[in-house]
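A quick word before the example. In earlier lectures we treated sequence and structure as two separate objects. From today on, think of them as two lines of the same record. Here is ABC transporter ATP-binding protein written that way.
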Amino acid sequence: MDEDMTAVPAGDAGDGAALLVVDRVAIGYRRNGRYVPAVGEASFEVRRGEKIMLLGPSGCGKSTILKAVAGYLRPAAGRIVVGGREAPPPGPDRAVVFQEFDQLFPWRTVLGNVVYPLRVTGVDRATARTRAVEHLELMGLGAALDSYPHQLSGGMKQRVAIARALAIDPLMLLMDEPFGALDAQTRGRLQRELATIAARTNVTLLFVTHSIDEAILLGDRVVVLAGRPSQVARIVDVAGLGGPDDPGFADARQTLRGLLAEEGEDLSRAVFD
Ligand SMILES: Nc1ncnc2c1ncn2[C@@H]1O[C@H](COP(=O)(O)OP(=O)(O)OP(=O)(O)O)[C@@H](O)[C@H]1O
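And the structure line, produced from the sequence above:
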C-alpha cells in the first residue's frame, strides 16, 4: 500500500509528464523582518486526473503549499511547475475553494456567482449561463439559482463555490479544507458528492485536510507532511478506497494514524467519524 516517493505514481498523464510538479520546495514567511520557514522541503507530483490529499498536523504548511501552487506565494527555493509552466501567476487554470463561507460575492445571485468568472474568462453570455446552470444542477442547486448567498446554509455556499470552480473547467481544482467548517452530517454528504463528481469529471484535485478519513475517502494518494519546518514524510496510496466498508480502508487508516501519531497530532481531531 505504501508507495515510495521515487516510484512512478498511478494515473500517468500518458506522455509521462506530471500536471503538477512540486520539486524540493521551501516556503516561509517574513516575521519582524526575519525569514521563518514553514515548509522545509516538499516534493511530490500530481498526474492528470489524480486526487492528491495533503495531510499533516496543524501548522505544518498544508495551506502554504496550496497557496504556492495557486500562485499566491512564491517559494524561497525549489520549483513549482503547472502544466509545463514554472511558477505561473494565479489564474483560472487553478480554481481554488476555501474553507470560509464568505468566498461568494454577496451582491450576486447563486447563478451570478457562477456566471461571473466564466464571463471574465471570455465565455459568451448564453454559454456561460448554460454552463453555470449545468454545474449548479450537478451540485444539487437547481432550485436556488436566484437566491443570494445570505439566504444559503454553509453547505449550500460550499456547493456554489465548488460549482463555480468546476464550471471554469480548470486544469486543477485546489481545495483548502472546504468542508472543515461544516457539521459532520453535511460534511459527510458533501464528501460523498465530491467523490462522485470528481470521478465523473476526472478533475485533477489537490486537497488540504487534517482528516484521515476524508483523505482516504477522496484521495488516490495522500502526501503526509511532518516536522517543523515540514517535509514529506510519506506518500500513501489509497486509490479505490471509497468507504470504511472497503477492505484496505482500516489498514490505510492505521498507516496514516501511525504517521500522524509520530508527529504528536491530536488524533481525535484527525479522524472524523
Ligand atoms: N501569512 C502568514 N504570515 C506569517 N506566518 C504564517 C502566515 N500564514 C501561515 N503562517 C505560518 O506558517 C505555518 C504553516 O501554516 P499553514 O496555514 O500553511 O499550516 P496548515 O498545515 O495549513 O495548518 P492548519 O491545519 O492548522 O490549517 C504556521 O506556523 C503558520 O503560523
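Notice the following. Residues 1-14 have pLDDT under 50 and may be disordered. We will return to this example when we discuss secondary structure assignment.
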